[in-house]
Amino acid sequence: MGFDNTTENATDWQVTIIESLIPLSYIPQEEKEQVERMLFDTELKYEEAETVITYLKANKIPTLEEEFNRKIKEK
C-alpha cells in the first residue's frame, strides 16, 4: 500500500512552516487564531496543512529581499 497524503496527518515539517508563517502573514487576527488552533488539532491532515501553507505564503508580508527583487524585475 502506498503513501496516501489525503489521509495522513500533517508532518512536523509542515507544522514548523505554518508556525513560522503565522507572524509574517497579514491575515486577520481571527484567521491567525484559527490556524493556531488547527496546529493543536492532532487530526490536521497533510493536504489541509499544504493548503494552509499556500494560503499563508500568499498572504505574508514580503521580506526586504523579496521587495527588492520584485522592484528589480519591474524595471
Brief sketch in words of this structure:
With 75 residues, the protein is mainly α. Helix content is 61%, strand content 0%. The chain contains four helices and no strands.
Report on the structure:
By secondary structure, the protein is mostly helical. 61% of the residues lie in helices and 0% in strands. It has four helices and no strands. It has helices at 12-21, 29-40, 46-58, 64-74. The longest helix has 13 residues, at 46-58. The N and C termini lie far apart (51 Å). The mean pLDDT is 85.
Per-chain topology:
Elements (H helix, E strand, L loop, with lengths): L11 H10 L7 H12 L5 H13 L5 H11 L1
Q: What letter string, H or E per element, gives the SSE order?
A: HHHH
Oligomer: single chain
Radius of gyration: 15 Å
Structural class: mainly alpha
Shape: elongated
Strand content: under 5%
Q: Tell how many strands the DSSP assignment holds.
A: 0
Catalogue the unreliable spans. Answer: none
Mean pLDDT: 85
Please give the count of helices.
Answer: 4
Termini distance? 51 Å
Helix share, percent = 55-70%
Quickly list its features.
0% strand; mainly alpha; 4 helices; single chain; 75 residues; 61% helix
